[in-house]
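Record format v2
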Amino acid sequence: NAGVTQTPKFQVLKTGQSMTLQCAQDMNHNSMYWYRQDPGMGLRLIYYSASEGTTDKGEVPNGYNVSRLNKREFSLRLESAAPSQTSVYFCASTKDPGRGYGYTFGSGTRLTVV
Amino acid sequence: GEDVEQSLFLSVREGDSSVINCTYTDSSSTYLYWYKQEPGAGLQLLTYIFSNMDMKQDQRLTVLLNKKDKHLSLRIADTQTGDSAIYFCAETPDGNKLVFGAGTILRVKS
């Protein structure tokens, strides 16, 4: 099993460009998440999808949109990239967030906005 | 709001024990987690503890939970150079999502 797959692994954007980060999981998990990681700040939740067909804002949603395309796929879109969005982005999934199953993380997308 | 707090850095010698501490914010968190992140990689689940437990042991790892003080610790026995990484604690305040601390960088000197 591949687990959680993120594409691309690296990306450089110019300010104002748009892009979509892709995430797919093959574990039949119900819940999926997008986090960003910045030095000294841990991981901060951008958006999450508790189940197929639902999405909710996390701690830092501004400048982002998401789509839960189906049970497997959860994409993150930057409509107009800004330097403040330079970060490492992680997608994660879990079978049931309230039952101690833990979250499986992808290997991350390293995004630089210049 | 309050943050999940961790010390930023810990340095130990190979073979010693490491203790990484965390103070979480929400006493209703049902599960509390420890994750490990190696350079350039994603987060890997190390262990977790259910809120009605005081201690959980898993090979070299021991998790202690003090619910009264909202304090969580991770002890790594016989620390090895391969344990060098960033360690994150995380809580589940509303059962829907993980909230992470800033991470503790563990450096193991040989």
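Chain B has a mean pLDDT of 92.
The two ends of chain B are 40 Å apart (CA to CA).
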